[in-house]
Amino acid sequence: MTNAQSSIVLESSQLKKNDICVFYKIINGALTKGDTVLVTTPGSLQLSSKTPFIQGQYFVEVPKEVHNGIVELLIENNKNSTFTVSFDALYNTVLFKDNPINGVYSAYLGTVKSTEDQIQKLYTKGTAVNITESGKEKINIQIKEQQKKIYDLEISLIKRYPNTLLSAIIKSNNLPLMPGSILENYIVDPKSSNYKEITNFLRENYWKGVDFKSDILLNTMLLPSKAKKYISLFDKNDSQLNEVVKELLDKSAVNPLVYQVISDALYNSFNKPVYIDNDENIAVAILKNAQEQSFVPDWKKQSIEQQILIHQKNMIGSKAVNFTLKDASDTKYVLNDVKSKYTILFFFDPECSHCMEVIPKTKGWFHVDGPKDAHVLAIYINHNEQEWKKYVKENTYPQRWLNLWDKNGEEKIQEKYWIQSLPTIYVLDENKKVILKDVNYKQLINFFSVQNQNR
User: What per-residue confidence (pLDDT) applies to 131?
Assistant: First the structure.
């Protein structure tokens, strides 16, 4: 992809000397920070490049006094070397001089947002407890009218601007209307009567507008965001979800670069630390799918194999590997013998500076707001007995907090739990099944906060 555009000019009476504007670009589906530019002449700023900007999606962050929000730009493959973005702070509007496609795109995004807001209001009204069947039918018709409005607008723009990034983005979003009741289509439940009909419709139509062989959408957020949205439309307990993921990977495999973007997005959708949003089996299946691709180099396949091994150690939902460790007085503790609704495993080292930042916070939280039906096993992973016992002696701990270590290295804790960084935190249920895996402090307290709210 090549492009002849070489400069973007920002104009606003609100731009002051020494104001900072930040440009972002999308490279292979990932947001990348570009140039940070200082305003030297009040009222305008120019971002110039010695090499042409590549075709794709760009974002500009300007001072709030100039515009309330991030400005999105599309750079096409054309002969224009410069285009100007003009801001009207009074009306919070953006004008694109010498670049009509961005003006059209901006208007399109505004229309889509306002229409979706209207649809959401109608949906809320249509699902009210006291609404009649005739009322539901009337609202259902109104929602379909709003959806058709967007559908028709997209068709007209695709025809008006063929072979452009604008049309590729709009075409990829252009879906025919779902069959049946719109109100019922919001139900994502494998047990509902129309769930299979809806998901079959999605599998057949959701990706029809995407040309997987083309690179045109690579430098936009569309492919990763569309992949994540697609998966979110299926119930996480759907037995066919693995098949759905494989279908999408197979479609994208015609283009190695597109495959990588979509594969990464899908992997990140399933590789989550909290068990309720996690299916490591699908995450592993995605990695194994990549290993099967002929275009993936051998060195990458070896790296993927390491990722798979990490997943397979104490997978979420599986029973944690048992161990026997000792405290400072040489008393033995067996993981499976700990009687507690929750067991928090906190792997650390006193010489780890980040551990020493997190441990006091964790102790404070556990003492004041932590679950009363939980135990913490704070596990020193190295073998310097003098260092560890000195640390234990010099510090205080809340109740139900045990300091343990693998005295002779016989338990091989780092290998069993694949500890690559510190601190590493796990949470187990009363049967010692893994609930959280390799989470940080904030994720730990957020999880228990949700558990408390659900009681």
Answer: 85
Print burial letters for 92-101: b (CB count within 10 Å at least 16), e (below 16): eebebeebeb
Number of C-beta neighbours around residue 431 at 10 A = 8
Q: Are 7 and 46 in contact (CB under 8 A)?
A: yes
SS3 11: strand
pLDDT digits (tens, 9 = 90+) for 120-155: 898 888 878 788 888 888 988 898 899 899 999 999
* Most distant CA atoms of the chain, gap in Å: 79
Runs of H (alpha helix) within 370-440? 385-394, 413-416
Helix, strand, coil in percent for the chain, rounding step 5: 45, 20, 40
Angle made by CA atoms 199, 203, 205, in degrees to the nearest 5: 110
> What does DSSP say about strands 424-428 and 342-348: parallel, antiparallel, or unpaired?
antiparallel
- Using the predicted structure, report yes or no on whether residue 394 has a pLDDT greater than 70: yes
Q: What angle do CA 322, 324, 330 make, to 5 degrees?
A: 165
Distance, in Å, from the CA atom of 378 to the CA atom of 349, rounded to the nearest integer, reads 10
Per-residue pLDDT at 2: 45
Question: What is the pLDDT at residue 184?
Answer: 54
Which residue(s) pair with 95 in the sheet?
86
Q: Kindly give the pairing relationship between strand 424-428 and strand 374-380.
A: unpaired
Q: Which two tokens stand for residue 172?
A: 């990829």
Rounded to whole angstroms, how far apart are CA atoms 95 and 84? 8
Helix segments in 177-336, DSSP class H: 182-185, 195-205, 222-232, 241-252, 256-270, 280-292, 298-312
Tokens read off for 103: 């003006």
Residue 189 predicted with pLDDT over 80: no
Rounded to 10 degrees, what is the CA torsion of 164, 165, 169, 172?
60
With contact defined as beta carbons under 8 Å apart, do 57 and 168 qualify?
Answer: no
- pTM score, two decimals? 0.78
Please tell me the distance from the alpha carbon of residue 123 to that of residue 106, in angstroms, as a whole number: 26
List domains and CATH numbers for the chain.
Answer: 7-98 (2.60.40.180), 99-186 (no CATH), 213-312 (no CATH), 324-453 (3.40.30.10)
